[in-house]
UniProtKB/TrEMBL annotation, chain B:
Residues 138-404 form the Amidohydrolase-related domain. It holds the Pfam family Amidohydro_1. Gene3D superfamilies: Metal-dependent hydrolases. It comes from Sphingobium algorifonticola. Keywords: Pyrimidine biosynthesis. This is Dihydroorotase. CDD domains: DHOase_IIa. GO terms for biological process: purine nucleobase catabolic process; pyrimidine nucleotide biosynthetic process.
Amino acid sequence: MPQPPRETAVQTMPTGLTGRQQFPHRHLLAISALMPWEISFLLDEAEHWVGVNRAHSRKHDDRLGGLTQINAFFENSTRTLLSFEIAGKRLGADVVNMHAAQSSVKKGETLIDTAMTLNAMRADVIVIRHGSSGAVRLIADKVSCPVLNAGDGWHEHPTQGLLDALTIRRRKGSIAGLVVAICGDVLHSRVARSNILCLGSLGAQVRVIAPPTLMPAAIEQMSVTPFTDMDAGLEGADVVMMLRLQNERMDGAFIPSPREYHMLYGLTPERLARAKPDALVMHPGPMNRGVEISSIVADHPERSAITEQVEMGVAVRMACLDVLTRAARGVEGWA
Amino acid sequence: MTLAIVNAQLADPDADTVMPGSILIDGDAIVAAGDIAIPLDAERIDAGGLIVAPGIIDLGVFRTDKPAFHFGGITRAALMPDQAAPLDDVGLIRQATRAGKPDFWVHPIAAATRGLKGVELAEIGMMQAAGARAVGTGRQWIADSGVMLRVLSYASALGLTVIAHAEDGGLTGKAVATSGETATRLGLSAAPACAEAMAIARDIMLARETGAAIHFRLVTTAGGFALIRAAKADGLHVTCGISPAYLFLSDIAVTDFRTFAHLSPPLRSEDDRLAAIQAVADGTIDVITSSHDPRGPEDKRLPFADSSPGMAGAETLLALSLNLVREGHLTMNALMRLLSAHPARILGVQAGTFGAGQAADIIFIDPDTPWRVDSARMAAAAGNTPFDKVPVQGRVRRLMKGGQFR
């Protein structure tokens, strides 16, 4: 029984979408599940929240008032958890955080049982991070409320892809036609996968730059151009997106040492000069200064968009929480 | 007591085509088969024109599962040593040989090394005396080439075939998928397909050195088949098997993190799948096994990388394999060689053909009956099949073990 070839979707933007048609998904699990116009819709929604967040007066909007948001983080996180918590609170939700370190997961409870427990507590939206690819989807199939993937293993981190796209769109005006170089540990990076899909879907030419030991097999099948030579990969780039190198991968397993990595793949001012003069520098954080990125580049006032990414993160997450709960809140056209 | 199965279409592994005929059985053994005269006093069993074939001998199952074996026409199962307590001890082997009675035969595969750890030789000779029919490395590759050399030479002197797992453990590590587009998109830990050929290449060298007989239980890549083909051409005692999953599915089946498609070795690329079909057709592959490994939700309803590999395959083994006949890759007789005669030879059991004196383990096959695989309604101990909802054809209507219907 031969299997059908992988879908190569011909995507034509439908017109006149209203209400739920603009985002007909119950969960946000992966960028791979989204059409380009659905991504753009979320970015447009997020623009509104950027304005609200920047207002110097009250940032509160109580549209999620009375709803319970559970942030279930099975893997340690500071900034993503904080970002989701702030996003939920600014929308008026009752936000509860569950850390794996304190949970019964350590006592051997299965992931499904944990999901059923959260569900029984009548959460209205659940934000999940898990160290295993596909784990968030597994939970989403078992609960009756919307689930937001805050990162699953090496698979996807969709809100990171969206916030990076929003940052680039605001800085560059548009994403179509830009050359984006994603550089670092692509193999183990969910951020890289979500960005490849998100930016590629919006029309960017995506390159990935990685040491051969950290380059996934057949990555060119995801419509990217792989480079192992960083200088070549940066040539003429509009955006340089650095990835974090995990400590445990630095000591001989995948690369010989942090200093050798810095020599070959660190973003220095000299290297950055290969990219376009106005190239944007991005990093999902937390940074290893002096390893994948030098401080001069990271702190460059015009070129670095790193703190802006953090700001966009809150706006994107507010947009996602708002959109995903519209059906439950009975918003007209979404119920 | 003499039995005669009459009005049958005989799928004799020793013949070239399916022929009408009869089988004469005395006690638990076959007396004669083919276009034979039936004694007047024989009890006649009308096969009603069904295909009659030797019972399937499943070379490498992880669990004895009577309802699934009965459904699938399996009369003998070689039990893998990977049990809760690895089969590395005489008592465990003796116990395993009794596990199928009286419904089917269990032929345990003795662990080659203590605890399947790949370090010290297990008591292979004593386990053979207790009923072990082969020696196996289990799910694991023996990393130490010196240990593997000694396993092969020792087993060879006892006349036992070594059943090996063909994946270089250094390359596979904790991988749960084959390197390629699917694993990359899903973010799954993956190993290159050449891990298989590397393990096979080493073990063929050791088989050549020792003259031992080695059977690679599951070979699934073009690189692996090329090595097996060359080793056979050199006259080495090298055989290999495959399970239907690798013939009819590629790694695309893993998309959406379907843990029922989490197998070991992992599903391969479409090119390797096509190479597997070719290797079945040209005789490179000797055995088709179910690799039956029923796993409940506690092992499968987990994130992909945390789930246990394996599929419940016993009841779909024949129906899926019949696709090979229907698509013209094999004759029915050749298929029964892969399912019965060759596994019998590797295990050294008097079964698997219609020759005089062979065990009267016989199945009646209705080759065209359509049915649909349904993971929720399987006979097996668990419904973990990657073929859920797939339409298939072919059912076993009756099953005889040792001259008695079961």
